[in-house]
Amino acid sequence: YLNVLSNNRWRERWCRLKDNQLLLHKDREDLKSHIASLPLRGCEVSPGLDHKHLFAFRLLRNGQEVAVLEASSSEEMGRWLGVLLAETGSNTDPATLHYDYIDVETTANVIQLAKQSFCFTSKRAVSPSPYLDNHVNGYACPSGMALHYDDVAINGMVFKKVEVRTLWQWK
Hints:
- By secondary structure, the protein is of the alpha+beta class.
- It has helices at 74-88, 104-126, and strands at 2-6, 9-18, 21-25, 36-39, 44-47, 56-61, 64-70, 134-136, 139-141, 145-154, 157-166.
- The protein is globular.
- It comes from Characodon lateralis.
């Protein structure tokens, strides 16, 4: 779930990617219909909004705001930034983005997770094997990184589990 700013009001929406589009659903149970569909190719991803919304980021097309989204944590923000950068076809390194209102340690966490999810998404798109070493977005995606996405049921609820084990450190 991400918070989505719509008509000056934040609303929680289930967000997913399909065919280079960000689909916004009222909740996870209703995936057949969506509230909005945002084409991502050619969009820019820009983190930051204000000091009240530390994990917010914007999608821009030709400098115009398309959407304002907010994650609930730095980890979620990093994962979403990486995936959205890959889906938009951006050449932007997550480390070059401006992370206003976030402290240095949190920013480093966001950047590391953004790079990992960017590499995972990009490798899945270019190669049948996401574990082959290749250069994406101007930096090497480590071959020692084991990535796994899995749906996990906990107390009757289903959560998306992301397991990332890094055997190589980003520098």
